[in-house]
Amino acid sequence: MNQFNMDAFRKHHPSSITMSLESAVQIVAEVFHKYAGEDEKKNTLNCEELKKLLEAECSKKCGAGKMKCLMKRLDENKDGEIDIVEFGALIGMMAKKESCS
């Protein structure tokens, strides 16, 4: 079995992974702040803002039950809002294709 060697890949392609990852992180942060900026709390998403983000950016239709489940899973500090670190968990869920059913 041939195992992928990330260090060897980076040695031969030093900017390809770094630039694409940096670009992806920047885009995720920009999308987060676009929707977080809709109310007076510019650094967090409330349930309605998260719903708008998912429906506009991911073409996901989110009912009340799904939003309640997502907020419960993402809101680690239980303040009723999602900060950018908590939002990162959603990106991980999406990458793993997890959802609230």
UniProtKB/TrEMBL annotation:
GO terms for biological process: endothelial cell migration. This is EF-hand domain-containing protein. InterPro entries: EF-hand-dom_pair, EF_Hand_1_Ca_BS, EF_hand_dom, S-100_dom, S100_Ca-bd_sub. Gene3D superfamilies: EF-hand. The keyword 4Fe-4S does not apply. GO terms for cellular component: cytoplasm; extracellular exosome. Coiled coil: none annotated. Residues 62-97 form the EF-hand domain.
